[in-house]
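Journal club prep, shared notes

We agreed each person brings one worked example of a sequence with its structure written out as tokens. Mine is Aldo/keto reductase. I'm keeping it raw so we can talk through how to read the token line rather than staring at a rendered picture. Sequence first:
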Amino acid sequence: MNYLRLGNSGLQVSPLCLGCMTYGNPAWRPWVLREDEARPFIRQALEAGINFFDTADIYSAGQSERILGRALKDFARRDDLVIATKAYFPMDDQPNNRGLSRKHILQSVEASLRRLGTDYLDLFVIHRFDEHTPIEETAEALDAVVRAGKVRYLGASSMHAWRFMKMLAFQRHHRLAPFIAMQSQYNLMTREDEDELIPLCREEGIGLTPWSPLGRGLLAGARKAGTLRAGTDEQTPQWYGGRDEVERTLAAVEGVAGARGVPSAQVALAWLGTRVGVTAPIVGLSKPHHLQDALSAISLRLSEAEIALLEAPINQRARPARW
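Then the structure, token by token:
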């Protein structure tokens, strides 16, 4: 396993990050695996050299963090790991148990530390941008948890480039702990961030860790396979349904994979490996073959012709007029 720097920081991470939204309580999402089912996947990831693990407080209402924390304690040394978690979304119906206020950031960090069973977080990620809290308050609270030694590095997720730049500029001007990573939905079917957010991250030295690199499993053939997630995930049709370029992209992935004699997931992940600025896609593991597909994608080299074929459906779509 070759490890990479996360952005301009000195933090070294594996080129794959194990996303742990899949582990928790099926009452939260029907496709989620219980602890006894999840632990083997976490152990196998560690044995393969993956040192980067991502979860969030909202995943199964904290149960994902608990499962991950117990497994990592049993299977690895804490100092060898890079553990990321996130906060923003409501944890209950109380008005202050959500967002990016100083109050919620401080209590979220403490709660995640307890659930994960650790005394520090390697990467604390703001799960979304909070329109209702001044960026000054959020940035200063994030700096406070870093200076307190409870968080080592900061990350952000899925926001407009101009908002992210405002936060980066405020941090820089006031010499606050900066963001080093961005989690953005990025895959062959979702490439809007190529216009502004990803170029910004490259310019500012922010490491990109794409979430949903397989498009909720569609790019891995989940729909044809009839997986539980494909049949029950409400967001899949909302994000990808009714788009001609999505269907043509899926066909292109299948075509390249068929010609190569490899699973579609390997091709989709290998494409991400060609994108400048991408450090570690966040992949979920819930089937025996998922880990090997992800590992094989690291060494799979796509030709320029294959890349052009995969990108064509999105490149050819009509784009809005620019000012």
